Amino acid sequence: MALFTGAFFVAQVSLIIVAKPFYAIFCTSCVPRHENLRIIVGKVVENFYAILRDFTELYKNIGEIRRNNMSSNIEIRRICAWCKQEFIAHKTTTTCCSHRCANLLYKQKKREASIRANNQVVEKVIKEKPIEKIRDKPILTITEAATYIGVTRPTLYGYLKRGELKASRLGYKFLLKKEDIDNLFNKPIEFKIPVRDKPSINDFYTTAEVKEKYGVKDSWIFHIAKEHNIPRTFHRGKNYWSKKHIDDYFAKKAPNPEIKEWYSTQDMQEKFGMTLTAIYSFVSKNAIPKKKVGIMVYYSKKHVDIAKGLIAPEKPKYYTIAEAMERFNLTRDQLYHYVKYHNIPRIKVGKYTKILRAELDKFFEPPKIDNSSLKIRQA
């Protein structure tokens, strides 16, 4: 249809461009004796133009019909396949009321197709039943033996290492007798859950003793006991707290004994002109060491001055890899193993790696035995 209309349009334009000028020249050039011929040719041309006009109208009607078919004006009541709302459709193939519902329906169909494909794979594996293939085999490989018992390969290798199962090596394969596996379950043993004996707690603090020793409030004692699971008991109207757990908690919170100078909040307000809110934000952001004495809080003077830029920070001393290897008589692989496994701090300077001297010395320092513990053992 498109080819026909295109050819017709080209023919129409060609005739208008060529035939009409030709007819005008013919009419002006013909002599009067050919009057009858001129009249006949004129009628033929007029008839031809009439035919062209009819074809033009037909072409317009065909285009109108095609436009009407492409944009249908029919109204069909449908129910949306996604939101289940009624809507008016203009095509019989429309299933959704909007582009959003169409997208959601498409995604749901894709999910369902994926689930069906996965279920088909699972059903196929279940139908194959690998256990059926090895049920009648007297000799099993490691993988088959693990499937037969219902364990993983590493678990089966554990049985072999502990001597609970025996295997024979043939080339690169280890083979097991199914009879040995069956005999393993013919000798059941009594299963016992190992019970760990918890050490008894005999030393306690009263609440008043904790308050007096560490300068804290009642509410704070209950708060840290709940947060850190500190054992307690209630006897004759008093709360008793595990002495060991309380001491361990406050020992972790104790300030570094190497820090000798401290700022109070009043000192920092006077020296740096800071508000309390600014002080709390500053010490939290810079991780300034602090200690609490009663209701007073003190901050390390050295760390505050370093954070304020009043004094230069001490540069940590580092070992190079070669120096550490020579110092502790280690190979490169051994050194890297210790540094990585024990998280010893290190830095990268260009293409060289340097290890923190203090941490590495502390790691390799010889163990120490207290004289008090030695006297107890000798006694």
Strand order of the largest sheet: 3-5-4
What Rg do the Cα atoms give?
48 Å
> What do the pLDDT scores average to?
79
Biggest sheet features: 3 strands, antiparallel
Task: Write up this protein.
By secondary structure, the protein is an alpha+beta fold. The protein folds into six domains: 2-61; 88-127; 129-184, Arc Repressor Mutant, subunit A (Orthogonal Bundle); 204-253; 262-308; 318-364. It has helices spanning 2-29, 35-70, 99-128, 130-134, 142-149, 153-161, 178-184, 207-214, 218-227, 243-253, 265-272, 276-285, 301-308, 321-328, 332-341, 357-364, 371-378; strands spanning 76-79, 86-89, 139-141, 168-170, 173-177, 204-206, 232-235, 238-242, 262-264, 290-293, 296-300, 318-320, 346-349, 352-356. The chain is extended, with a radius of gyration of 48 Å.
